[in-house]
Design a protein that fits this description.
The protein has about 180 residues and is mostly helical. The protein has helices at about 1-35, 40-50, 55-135, 140-170. It has a domain at about 1-95.
């Protein structure tokens, strides 16, 4: 009976060593795959090793490392997608802005053309109006002669006043205007 207990103890110890060797083998295979950046194979080796020896510290640590790296890759990919989305949005906004600028420029050109045509019409109307005013402003020969006669009469009055002042002998004070 002692022999059978010793045999059973020995068998369990060997079995534990066998599991340890297998867990170690899985760990080394997973570590090698990780070094070669083959994450899928590394994860598969870790999972198989943990299936045989779920408490192996090296496999648990390597699984945590692989999970952490996978999470970082997902975050990095998400950031890249967001950056790409932002760049696409900026590009689209830029194209929209260019399109809007082009439309604004076309509208400005159209408004300028409309304004020029309206200005041309206004100029034509103004010239016609000026011509009409000039015709109205033109005086007849009789009106011009009357105007000249009035100017002569005023000049004569001014000359008479000057002669009267000179005849009186009064000197007129001149204020200097400088």
């Amino acid at each position: 009976m002692k022999a059978s207990i010793v045999f059973l103890f020995l068998y369990i110890s060997l079995l534990g060593v066998h599991f340890a060797q297998d867990a170690s083998t899985y760990f080394h295979a997973a570590a090698q795959a990780y070094i070669n950046e083959n994450m899928e194979q590394a994860k598969l080796n870790v999972e198989n090793g943990l299936a045989m020896a779920p408490t192996d510290e090296k496999l648990v640590a390597l699984k945590a490392l692989l999970d952490k790296q996978e999470e970082q890759q997902k975050q990095q990919q998400k950031q890249q997608e967001e950056q790409q989305k932002q760049e696409d949005q900026k590009q689209e906004e830029k194209q929209d802005q260019q399109s809007q600028d082009s439309q604004d420029q076309q509208q400005d050109q159209q408004q300028n053309q409309d304004q020029q045509s309206q200005d041309g019409q206004k100029n034509g109307e103004q010239q016609e109006q000026k011509a009409g005013e000039m015709q109205e402003a033109q005086m007849s020969k009789e009106q011009v002669e009357q105007m000249l006669q009035m100017l002569r009469q005023e000049e004569d009055k001014i000359q008479e006043k000057l002669q009267l002042l000179k005849a009186r002998g009064q000197k007129k004070k001149v204020d200097k205007d400088w």
